[in-house]
Design brief:
The structure is a homotetramer.
Chain A: E1 5-6, E2 11-16, E3 22-28, H1 38-48, E4 65-69, E5 71-72, E6 75-76, E7 81-86, H2 96-100, H3 108-115, H4 131-148, E8 153-161, E9 164-165, H5 187-199, E10 206-213, H6 227-236, E11 241-246, H7 257-260, E12 264-267, E13 270-273, E14 281-282, E15 285-286, E16 291-297, E17 307-310, E18 316-319, H8 330-356
Antiparallel strand pairs in A: 1-2, 2-3, 3-7, 4-7, 5-6, 8-9, 8-10, 10-16, 11-16, 12-13, 14-15, 17-18
Helix pairs in contact in A: 1-4, 4-8, 6-8
Chain lengths: ~375, ~375, ~375, ~375
């Protein structure tokens, strides 16, 4: 991975700023012959787009995605696919304060130090609006995966919001609430907590879990493109993410070897595991169990509470960030995490074809 | 990253199996003119090598590193550096059981499924012996960094072992104990716990923290080669790692925005931060604060307690793993984590030269 | 290089088909702070655009380039730059014959065999219209080079058309004729020959020479990203190119060692060479002399003379290619070759910063 | 391609200097399960090794290749393969003159300018000894290709030596003479010419042709990893190469469209072409015809004739290059070109599996 491109074989290059005319991505390495159209992609865009509930930014973007290349008569051609999303609600305002001051917890200061200048309008390139392009690319990946791996299912949820967390994974009800909470009994409490937080002009962090069922065994390229390595990189590249876990994650440190190793039995269709502490990955290669990835999203730093900072000229000041910000950016990170999971799985599916040239080791008769 | 290579500009390609004749790596992209010799590298090799205390594997390897290319009259030439470590203590034994059975929690089964065959001797390529090559490469990186970033200091410690953890970071005493524990008051308890565990034929996980002080601001290549993205990938690629955290890590989920964003003041030499929840990285770019990375290592699955598993032919069995295994592989992961940190920092230092072509944004007069 | 991206550090990803709504490219790795605007890019676009003289395709495209990202207040930000060119003159017509038949000498048949389907409208992705995106990217590269290497001058010419060739390099008059011919005395003859050819419904090949003066010594990354390696790849990737030469090129085979090696003297500003058989590159690294690259462009296969071919269903047929095609595609390849030269030089300038970390070997006192 | 690695999926990283202890390469991306042993590789090494006839360098190297990793019980494991060749005949001598002076036509001066220092012993990294590692890697590629593409045949010949050239391609007799000349009637003349040249203390250039028959249609990744692009880069990366041609090559410039486009008929097994001006590649993708690649090798600059040059200190001098040099380095470039052809074909075969995910377009029935 380098710069603005991710993926080995299914390569996505994103471009665009929060308040520029448009943003988008080039999807390179998509196999030919797959049915794709704008409606299919829009389905996923709508899950991430702003303005969907009172718990997310009130910026109004249609996030309408256009396919400019790489699809002919409804099918992919195997050439580069250009996806473009025009920005329509870049609110015109005075950016004077933000242009001269660095918001604590933002990329303002590091972009300035690295590049010597920055597009301060809405965070420019460092804005989470960049993730719209990822969701579009993820839509392409899902269409391909539907062809190549029937039965694959990728699902995400917010499993922790601040100090509130749940162990339930009621996947069928996740989309019934605006918080992507997988525990229907917890939704009311979580909403109340978030309402209170907004009134206090504050924000809160979250943990997102992405689950992929139906992934074939054998995906992952040891040693430095292990499946978990690439998933960790993919999730850590999402704005505001500070930690990534596979399976037991950080809690693996607390386990004993006799507890942690998932025992193996033989089932009618192949190996069956007694547990899934590994999160579906051993030695960097998928086992065929569910992939389980979690990531922590820090609370948005764009809050109305005044915070100490400095200006470009070195003078000290206090700043509050007005604007239309998410009190819990974790909510909209769920479809982004799903999109990254789809891209990484497809990437490794294609990579594996090159690596092993069709080899698969049998177990049993 | 792909296959057996990591890094963008400082590229390390590792090779070799646990019980083959040798292992090593090619270091490509090392700047010319840097003083390097085998003794300098051996210093770091000795920190990771087996047999150092009763708490690590009793395999006896000198881990003597040879420089075969890329260094002329004591200085790097800018061409590819080959580092080779011969294996000397590949104990000859009957691998019959392991050759036919998959150890639970190991890469045995996934390598078989992916590649159709595997080098079962000591885990072959999936063995943690691969990390010896990383430590050698890390030694090269440290030599270059000593030239380019005087004052840079990379230090690692085991900050949690099973359920025992410490918040102390007494860096000066870390190497005084065989557990890389940064809390001198805790060492005796941790050693006692580990002794008990070995008697129970079990193993335990750990959390390792790597700290880098003196890293210049401005390193990191948004969006998909962010400094934290690359650190996450680097650490997750180490054997047995299941989670990676930057700064607050997973705990960032529990914080409020008003708590989490590090306030900024102006000091005599530039920006000064009131805290370091960010772990030294904002928007994927270093702030100049200490880089703080943690990763969780699962307990080794190679234990003497019998575990249910299957054979290649699909029949079920129980297995115990004899051999010379680490009761807490986290211990020897500390120098590996340090090496990866050194490689990633140097990689981004070189990458930044290309990216920004010398630009740096000033703050203040 | 892979897929639709070229370059190591200055990375250009192109997208778009001949008859799709638009085409363009993402330029990644452009240093920050460089002044760029659409007018600057348009200057180069206009040199390649169709309809410029009677000797090139009569398709009417404004080839207006838009900057959609990566530039803020007139300066590059160091983030990905999106350049888009809308197609406006995709003539609506019946593609029935071309959809079912493979034009000899075209990519029709190989795209079909590889991808199973193809965008047959005007050649789709295999059309030379793709090179418009390269010229746009080359415009960005030139703007950066103007900052980093004052005095650098990149010039191209058609030095052979069919069997007519010239050894003159009167660079100042090249743009005074529509054939990019560097020999003012030859222009009339060449034009007459091309007029005759058009009347015969035929086409002809050409040799293009690209010359870069003022390139600093030391660019090139041995062994597999040598400057000549990358130039060869860059030029060979242009549509219809069948051969690439550096310096003496194929004629180097006929020389003796005593003739070929360029002798070195010491001048007031450094080494001075008595000749330039090497074309400015030794061991894959620039010497500081003029870079001299030539490439052969085959005659366009889209001619009105009937040719034997087959249809997708395997039946045999004859085909003539109507449409607005260039009788000598070499003409419009000149600005494309210049653009590729600019991109490769900048790419290596940035790469060298990372590789050598600022080292340069002095010669003399 | 970057630095010391070539290939997209079948990646070869070479290391080592002419007079260091050893040289070799890491082959990454080799599919698992392929039978490989040292004898198979040695067969190819012996074709390139020095000392084979009076027409090549008299340096005596066994060029014995050792497999240090990636092969288990005689089969590839899918992990990185390390191949090492020890240098045994690094003649100890006084390098004083070469250490201080730059040989005209060599990389001495550019390595000095770029890196600030160089391994002057025998050319160090810039020596053609590096190509030994390529031939070893090519041996691995050939073993894999023998499995994946039965019937594939790669053959090389020296088709021009100085001004002597032949149009005959009597492949069966090529190995019957030490010059790899494909024209048995010309051998005696060529040998006489080379004998005369050696007596005159001079050297001469050559053109090498590499032919691959049995390559399947559909290989090549437009736009920037076209099969011809990658072949051009592969050949141009070989020491002393100054030009590369595909099919008609530079002569394509002299042809008319009505002559150049290869007409297509339908044969019993698919398309049949009436000619092969294209050299087996259209639009960057293989047609299934023979791949035909030629490259020009300049005469070695290491000759006994005195030449003007400068020293590191800037003073002027004359130099003659003693030592054991090839009067026509083109001879030993033939097996190197074959090796590169094998690597590129395998690389694209693997890449195509990822790109198209198994798609192939049918023609006919």
């Amino acid at each position: 991975m380098s710069y603005n491109t991710f993926g080995h074989m299914f390569r996505v290059t994103t471009w665009g700023e929060s308040h520029g005319p448009a943003l988008g991505c080039t999807v390179d390495g998509c196999p030919p012959g797959v049915a794709i159209n704008e409606e299919m992609l829009q389905h996923w865009m709508d899950q991430r787009k702003p303005g969907g509930s009172k718990y997310v930014t009130q910026r109004r973007e249609a996030d309408a995605v256009r396919i400019l290349s790489g699809v002919f008569e409804g099918r992919t051609t195997g050439t580069s696919i250009q996806l473009m999303i025009e920005n329509t609600d870049q609110r015109s305002k005075d950016y004077g304060e933000i242009a001269q001051s660095f918001r604590p917890g933002h990329a303002d200061i590091t972009y300035h130090q690295k590049y010597g200048l920055r597009d301060y309008r809405g965070g420019g390139r460092s804005s989470a609006r960049e993730t719209a392009a990822r969701v579009a690319a993820g839509g392409v990946a899902r269409a391909v995966l539907a062809d190549l791996v029937p039965g694959l299912r990728i699902r995400g949820a917010m499993v922790q919001m601040g100090t509130l967390r749940t162990d339930r994974r009621d996947w069928d009800t996740v989309r019934d609430n605006p918080l992507w909470c997988p525990d229907p009994d917890a939704v009311a409490d979580w909403e109340a907590a978030l309402d209170a937080l907004r009134k206090e002009h504050d924000s809160v962090g979250a943990v997102i879990e992405i689950n992929a069922a139906g992934v074939p065994a054998g995906l992952g390229a040891p040693v430095y493109a292990k499946l978990d390595t690439d998933l960790a990189a993919a999730m850590m590249s999402i704005n505001a993410v500070k930690g990534v876990e596979i399976g037991e994650g950080m809690a693996a440190a607390t386990l004993r070897g006799s507890e942690n190793a998932d025992e193996i039995r033989m089932g009618p269709d192949g190996p069956v595991y007694g547990s899934n502490h590994a999160g579906g990955i051993l030695g960097g290669i998928s086992t065929g169990q569910e992939l389980v990835v979690r990531f922590a999203v820090k609370p948005t730093s764009s809050i109305l509470t005044p915070r100490k900072t400095i200006r470009v000229d070195g003078t000290e000041t206090e700043i509050i960030t007005k604007g239309r910000h998410d009190p819990c950016v974790g909510i909209r990170a769920v479809p982004v995490g799903e999109a990254m999971m789809a891209c990484v799985i497809l990437d490794h599916l294609l990579l594996d074809r090159a690596q092993t040239a069709g080899v698969r080791g049998a177990i049993g008769g």
